[in-house]
Amino acid sequence: MSRTRFEQYSDLKSVPFKFFWKLRRTAEHAENPANWHENLEIQYCNEGEGYVLLDGQRYEVKKGDLTVANSNSIHFTGTNNEIRFSVIIIDSQFCKDVDIDHTKLLFESVFQDENIVNIFNEIKEVYDSEDPCKT
User: Cβ distance 43 to 64 under 8 Å?
Assistant: First the structure.
């Protein structure tokens, strides 16, 4: 992977995270280069299978797997077939404001956790609803 880009999330004002539901990649459709950012990123594999590159280390992922890109970790999600995944990017400033130095925390790269999957699903329900709390 020769291209990388730095992502800055400075527009996280109303909620302390960005949420993307069921992003889709195929072997032919994986145009985004590897990226990094100060924010923590948690991915949930909704469907299919593929891989996540974290600082050059390849991890195979399948439906139900969670992946964490630690602060400033160069990461990329790809597949040889098709994968759909959801992403929560947690605001760095929020972590700092509540005295969590997330830049010194290292999370397990790939794991499964039903509670975190439930949180992804609950956030999706709020995003899909007309709930005024979502803005």
Answer: no
What does the alpha-carbon distance between residue 59 and residue 62 come to, in Å, rounded to a whole number? 10
Tell me the three state secondary structure of residue 95.
helix
SS3 73: coil
Rg of the chain over all Cα atoms, to the nearest angstrom: 15
By CB atoms closer than 10 A (0-12, 13-18, 19+), residue 52 is buried
For residue 41, report the phi and psi dihedrals to the nearest 5 degrees: -130, 130
pLDDT (mean) for 32-41: 89
Global model pTM greater than 0.90: no
Sign of CA dihedral 30, 78, 87, 12: negative
Placement of tokens 């964490």 in the chain: 68
